[in-house]
Amino acid sequence: MRPFYLLLKISLNISFRLFYKRFLVLNSHKEFFGSTIYVSNHPNSFMDPIMIGSMNRPIVHFMTRSDVFVWWLKPTLWAAHMLPIYRQQDGTDTKGKNSDVFKKVNQSLKMGRNILIFGEGFTDDTPIRGLKPVKKGPVRMGFGALESINWSKKIYISGIGISYTDRNTIGSEFVLNNGPKICLNDYKEAYQENPNRVINEVTKRVEKDMQNCIVYVANPKRYSLLENIMQITRKGYNHPNHDDSIPLLKRFEYSRELALWINANVTDESTEILALQKDLDAYFNLEKRMKVQDRFVVAKKHPELINTLNNWLYLILMWPFAIVGFIHGFIPYIIAKKVTEKIMRRKVFWGSVKMMLGKLIGSIYNIPIIIFLTKWYLPHWSLGVLYYFMVPVLWRLSYEYAHQFMEIRLKSKMKNVDLSKFEEKRADLEKRIQELIPVA
Length: 440
Fold this sequence. Notes:
Helix content is 57%, strand content 10%. By secondary structure, the protein is α/β, with parallel strands linked by helices. A seven-stranded mixed sheet has the order 1-7-6-2-5-3-4, sandwiched between helices. Strand 3, helix 3 and strand 4 form a beta-alpha-beta unit. The longest helix has 35 residues, at 309-343. The two termini are 46 Å apart.
């Protein structure tokens, strides 16, 4: 493991704990090294590889789009365990260039290292609760490595599933779920007899494992049905509308079970459920147009959702830390936000780029501040170093402070809004869900 990779693994692990409110890593493989090709879904662009690299136990080498390997970044990318993969749109001789890369992959797997590749190939602009067809490349790569070493070492392949409640929002949640390892050596005789058939078979097996690791809806037409049912029941894997007292694992499992029921039972002939889906879409679209958050509609049943006591307590108790965090973090946050939203046209990149850019700018911006404080106010330089590493925590407190202030304003405003029509419609939808969907 290269030192820069280790530094990123430790520091990004801390960053994720500040960015996300809750997270789970399920079924993590215990070995740091294991000659395994990890194949992941790709719901969140840059966030996915750095999350797997920092939160999962195994140490990986990343297969990365070749167009990011500009000359001045190559040393950093090499230090971060990244290998280029060339696509047809990347210019001439992609086959020859990939051949050289695959030789490095074969050598890495032979030496016990792990490879991470994203089987879907790209990230959708609109979040989905599904999985696009997994490409054959990772499996082909594994068997190619075995052939290159004459099947002398065991090489494995394993699916990974990443699920976000909201991929770009600070304070959201995620689950990183690891599938079982598949030993490719077990297919030796079948592969030597018919390589294409075995590659297809193993790819389908990996794809099925990946589906089992996420909240998976097979038909894209049913994405909104799942999402809206989760919002109405408040038991599912939705960020703005969920019951925070339910553990994340239970919400994740509930959502997977609900998705499986939809896959098995909802067809184009399911008239009552399709009518329900249409009405759910209309209800939440109306809320969006009227700028009404669904938590205020259910506030009569759950008055804690509009209670401001906890918000006020946070403001009263945390203001000194929030001011300090504001001084250290506001300017880096604003610069990272403005630059990212200007240069990144696709919003799917915003969360990861803002986090990484804010981390970089904040690290540089705060060095002279810490040096000044250490020289004039702190008794020893070690306290300055400790303070420097506390800055991200203080910034997160200041961010939350601003959020609590806005929450008080919003709750006060919504107390005077008549939501009776929404309440009636929501009650009807909830009743229909309970009648039609037994697992809801």
